[in-house]
Every structure is written in structure tokens, then in C-alpha cells.
Amino acid sequence: MKKHDVIVIGAGHNGLTNAAFLAKAGLDVVVLEKNSYVGGATASLELHEGWIYSNCSYVCSLFRPEIYQALDLGRHGLEVVPLQGSVSMMQNGDHFGSYHQPEIRRREMMRHSKRDADAAIRFDADLMKWCRLIRAFLLRTPPDPASFKIRDAMEFAYLLKRFHSLSESQLYEFIRFFTMSIAEYLEQYFESDIVLAHFSGGSIIGTGLGVYSPGTAYVLLHHAMGDIDGNVGSWGFARGGMGSVSKAIASSLRSYGGEVRTEAEVATINVAGGRANGVMLASGEQISAKVVVSNLDAKRTFLQVMKPADVPDKLLHRARNFKMRGSSGKVNIALDGMPDFPGLPSGSPLTLGHMHFTDSLERLERAYDDWKDCRWSADPYVDMVIPTQYDPSMAPPGKHMMSIFVQYCPVEVEGGWTDAERDAFGASVIDQISDYSPNFKDLLLHTEIRTPRELEAEVGLTEGNIFQGELTLDQLMFNRPFPGYAQYRGPVKNMYMCSSSNHPGGGVMGAPGANSAREILRDLGRKDTTPEDFEDD
To answer: Are the C-beta atoms of 39 and 519 separated by less than 8 Å?
Structure first.
């Protein structure tokens, strides 16, 4: 039986990134995926004839440009087109548009509050300051606070050097930022209800918290620190849908000699003598390897594919208590044409970006209240995009595809999720959109609805959590996923982790996969081929 150098469990974008870097270093790598397609939650599927859906993840920003360049993903077909702004509709028939052009954006903000237009300059500068600081840590391995190793000491020295550049007041402000609610943070700058609501949305996406919950300010930062073509904070569409990201990485992997096996679900990581030495598939097939890497989330890794006897009791306890708290749903729609939005000027470019329909912090918090009571939000927060305006190849001529991210949708509802309950959840989203688009329902040709139940069953997102673990302060940096296990190494020799449960967290970023590959190559003594620690100064 052939023995591979490395087995990677799960062909999500982080698993593929990990495998591509290892294959580039000359290792014999195989990626094992339970589904018939690659990408996990970063996939493009034809779920209605002629329409390509980005059925889970739907926009691109966080993917690290350093990885894009190192794996030559442009040559493998990945192209990202920047979005042009965003808009929040208002119940009174007006709207707030955050335009891509700074001058137009300022004039639009002045329509709602001259004070907010001035405050936005300070807000943008402050947010970018924190983005630049945090971005420097994304492609680095967190130091272990309990370690006395030279490398950990040097990494702490690097952290101190970065923070030493801050003044005393800035350091205080930064620490405070991590513990603040997004409402409290934004109210330091803005006064207008619609402006507050518009900028709060990014702080609750994928998070089981509300706009008044401590810690949500950081989630906004997490979503703001990506970039497209060097424009920090920008978002974009991958041509062909988000599956183009995974397909490009898989193509890069294969160009280095790596292999991807689909319909190959891993049941167990094999361990002997305290070392991982392969896996057993659900089919019973045994596959051997010197190294095993899990791209599954922390709960699935330690509570499902590893045997309890191979995991320390303390780690099992931490895995059971790792916070997921799924809170999101997804609706994909095939449209017979472009919807009308009377609240926008005719031909407005704002339909080209993110579209929202919640105009106050109160409505956002009430949506969260429903989730806390195990109900989907009666008045949900949605992040809606129509990518076929940029990429007509995703639908037949003259038709459109709409991708809708929904907050909040609970892991469990009273009586449990059924197909009827799922459809009722989708209907509530459609009803909200139709309040702002009178011809919307007439254009519906096909609707695909995903609750946390579907997200977990199909792509393995435990509780439907898109970040594979809450992005709260107790689950960041050297606490992600658990203290003592933040450096991508598992509890047995030759076993590693590379999923979004690891630093720096969720989103289509690729950083956990790349960072894990670096640690594996170090342990294998392949320093000559180790990806360098990327720094973003």
C-alpha cells in the first residue's frame, strides 16, 4: 500500500491552500474530500439549470494576496472584481449609499448628517489604523505564552515591537476596542440611525451576538481588514463564483503534483505509538501517511475523527466547550430579470454592491432577540448581492442570480428543523426584500434555502458557524482554538490542524492553511522550502 507524505482531510479552501504549499515544497500530498466537489463552503454549484450559485460564501476580500502570489493563482484562473459600494434601504423610502468614490460617499453622508460626514474621515482613519496593525499578524504563528522556546520569545518580541509603535492613548483605545460592542464603538463617531445601522452590519455577520453585545467591534475589524488590488477594506466577486477560488488553489496543487480525491470521507485518524500514521475512510479503506492534517473544525477534529483514547481528557473538555453558536442562513435565488428598487434613483450603481434593508440599531437588536429565543428573525438583517451584474456567465442571458446572507437563523427551532420550517425561514427573507422591491416575487424562478442544518450536513460547518468558531476575545490568537494548541499542532505527533478554527479565524482567507503548512515544513526540517512569514507593514 502506497504511503503518502501528507494526508489533508477536507478540500475546503484552507485544506487546499495547506496542501498546495506542502506539494510546492516537494511532498507527496493527497487531499481527501467527502463531497463530490472541492471547496467546502467556498464552492460554485449549478443547483438550477443554467445558474451558477455561490451557494455558501459569496464575496471575496479576506483572501491573502501573499498566498495568491505564492501559489500563482492568477495563472490558474482566479480573477476578483471589486464591488462598487453598498446601500441600506430605509422604511421611509429613502436610502443611505456608501459609494466607492470618496467624494460622492461624503456628499451622500451629508444628506443624513453633516456631522457624520466629518466624523467618517476620523472613523476611516482609525479603522484602517487597527487593520494595518492586525494584518501584520495574520500570516504569523501565534506565540505560546507558556513556552520558553526561543522562537516564541522572538514572536512575543515582534508583537511588542508592533504595539510599541502605539502611543499610550492608542494602546488603551486598542484594548478597549476588543471589548466594546459595535453600537458603543460607532456611537463615538456617528449620530444618524441609518449610518449607525449601515456600518454595524459587518459586526454581526456570522456571529451569535447582537449590536449591543461586547466584542462585536472586533468582528467589524475582521471583515474590514481584507483588500482587493491593494484597496484595504474592499470586497469583490470572484468570476465564476466563489468556487473559482477553490478551483484555482486545487489547480495550483495539482500543478505541483498534489492529488485531490473526492467522495472520500474520512471516518478516523489512525494513531499508533502516539503518532498519526494515516486515516480510515468511511468506506473502510485505509490510507497511510507520515503526516495527517485536519481541515475540519475543532469540534469535528477532536470529537469525531479522532478516537477519545488519542485525545487528552482536558482537550476533549475544551473541544466540547468550544463556542460555535451558529446564527446564519443563506438563500440563493435564480431571477427572471433585474429587480426594481424604487427607493434608489433610476440606474443607481448601488445595486452593484452589498444591499441591506435594516435602518436602525433597534431593528438589528430585535433580530438578535428572536435568535436568542430560538426563532429565525422576523425582520432579519440580510447582506444581498447580485453578482451577475458583473459576471453574466453565472446565469442565462438577461437573467440574474441573487445571493443572500441572513442573520439571524438559529441552530435549533422549537420542534426541530424540518423542510417546512426551512421554507418558512426562506419566505420571511423573500417577504422582507419584496417590501423594497415590488416586482421581486414575480421574478423568482428557483430558490435554494440553507439553515444551519443544511450548512452542517453538506459542508461540515458545525452548527452552521461560518467562522468554524466564534471570533470572541477568548477564542483569538493563542487561544484559538485552545490554549496550548494554537500553533497548528495536534495532541499526537505528526497530526496538525489548518481550518478556520485556528488563527487567524474564519472567512475565505487561506491564512490558517498557509500558516499550518509552514509549521509542518519546519517540523520536517524543510526550512529551505518553508514559506516565509509574510509581514504587512
So the answer is: no
Q: Which three cell numbers stand for residue 82?
A: 471589486
Give per-residue pLDDT as tens, 290-320.
999 999 999 999 999 999 999 999 999 999 9
Give the integer Cα–Cα distance in Å for 8 and 34.
12
**Which residue do the cell numbers 479503506 mark?**
285
Question: ∠ CA 182-188-193 to the nearest 5 degrees?
Answer: 70
Question: In degrees rounded to 5, what are phi and psi of residue 5?
Answer: -75, -45
Phi first, then psi: what are they for 338, rounded to 5°?
-85, 125
Separation of alpha carbons 216 and 197, rounded Å? 13
pLDDT digits (tens, 9 = 90+) for 389-437: 999 999 999 999 999 999 999 999 988 999 999 999 999 999 999 999 9
Q: Are 340 and 437 in contact (CB under 8 A)?
A: yes
- The per-residue pLDDT for range 270-287, each reduced to its tens digit, is 999 999 999 999 999 999
**Best CA proximity match to 398, nearest among 481, 332, 338:** 338
Q: For residue 65, how far is the Cα from the chain centroid?
A: 16
Q: Say how many residues make up the chain.
A: 537
CATH code (residue 287): 3.50.50.60
pLDDT for the residue 527: 66
| Residue type (1 letter), 373 | D
Q: How many domains does the chain have?
A: 1
Give the C-alpha separation, 50 to 239, whole Å: 16
Q: With contact defined as beta carbons under 8 Å apart, do 283 and 454 qualify?
A: no
CA distances from 85 to 124, 132, 248, 347, 417 (A): 15, 21, 26, 14, 36
Q: Is residue 479 in some structural domain?
A: yes
User: Is the separation of the CB atoms in 195 and 108 below 8 Å?
Assistant: no
Whether 82 and 529 have beta carbons less than 8 Å apart is answered as no
Residue 296 lies in a domain: yes
Q: What count of other Cβ atoms lies within 10 Å of the Cβ of residue 533? A: 13
The verdict on residue 126 lying in a domain is no
| pTM exceeds 0.90 | yes
Q: What is the extent of the structural domain holding 299?
A: 3-44+60-80+239-322+471-529
Q: How far apart are the first and last CA of the chain?
A: 48
Q: 3-class SS at 374?
A: coil
Distance CA 358, CA 47 (A): 29
- 96-110 burial, b at 16+ Cβ within 10 Å, e below that, comes to bbbbbeeeebeebbe
Q: For residue 387, say if its preceding peptide bond is cis, omega within 30 degrees of 0.
A: no
Phi–psi pair at 61, nearest 5 degrees: -160, -45
Is residue 485 within 8 A of residue 347, CB to CB? The reply is: no
Instruction: From residue 471, give the alpha-carbon distance in Å to each of 83, 183, 474.
Output: 25, 17, 8
pLDDT at residue 536 greater than cutoff 60: no
Helices (H), 77-167: 102-112, 114-135, 150-164
3-state secondary structure of 183: helix
Q: How many CA atoms lie within 13 A of 305 on its CB side?
A: 31
In a domain, 227, yes or no: no
Distances (CA, A) of 288 to 23, 211, 281: 17, 48, 11
